[in-house]
Amino acid sequence: MSYQYVVLRCVPRPDREEFLNVGVVLHCQSADFLDVRWHVDRDRFRVLDPLLDLDQVCEALTFVEGVCRGDDRGGAAARQSPGQRFGFLKAPRSTVLQPGPVHGGVTDDPARQLERLLEQLVG
């Protein structure tokens, strides 16, 4: 099955264009699959920007979870179809949490592929 994914980046200071990968959103239309996995390494962020509010970053990632899963945490966006929700999440933003470019691949297990991508791209 083909899938698309975006890497979620935390950009503490957009003017410096420095970022750390914090999550992956994967959409597989044929499996009706949309989910996110994320991990925030607080020690790495303290080095990059000691003033960054990491609790706020985690709240934003929890919102992304709600959008992916179609629950109340995702607000109005969560009430759309999975494809529309992925479109919402992959749209460029000028906030601290930003999606990278869309990539794709093929898998027989979208959930397992999401875990692999998290390990490879976020750590």
Quick summary:
This protein is an alpha+beta fold and 123 residues long. Strands 1, 2, 3, 4 and 5 form a 5-stranded antiparallel sheet that branches.
Spans where pLDDT lies below 50 across 5 or more residues: none
Number of domains: 1
User: End-to-end distance, in Å?
Assistant: 25 Å
| Structure annotation, total helices | 4
Rounded to an integer, what's the Rg over CA atoms? 14 Å
What string, H for helix and E for strand, traces the elements in order? EEEHHHEEH
Largest sheet: 5 strands, antiparallel
Give the helix/strand class. alpha+beta
Shape: globular
Average pLDDT, all residues: 95
Count of individual beta strands? 5
Strand content: 25-35%
Helicity level: 25-40%
Describe the overall structure:
- With 123 residues, this protein is of the alpha+beta class.
- The chain has one domain.
- Helix content is 36%, strand content 25%.
- The protein contains four helices and five strands.
- Strands 1, 2, 3, 4 and 5 form a five-stranded antiparallel beta sheet that branches.
- Strand 2 and strand 3 form a beta hairpin.
- The longest helix is centred in the middle third of the chain and has 16 residues.
- It is globular and about 40 Å long.
- It starts with a strand and ends with a helix.
Q: Secondary-structure map with pairings?
A:
Blueprint: E1 2-10, E2 20-28, E3 33-38, H1 42-48, H2 54-69, H3 82-90, E4 97-99, E5 103-106, H4 110-121
Antiparallel strand pairs: 1-2, 1-4, 1-5, 2-3
Which terms would index this structure?
single chain; about 120 residues; alpha+beta; 5-stranded antiparallel sheet; 4 helices; globular
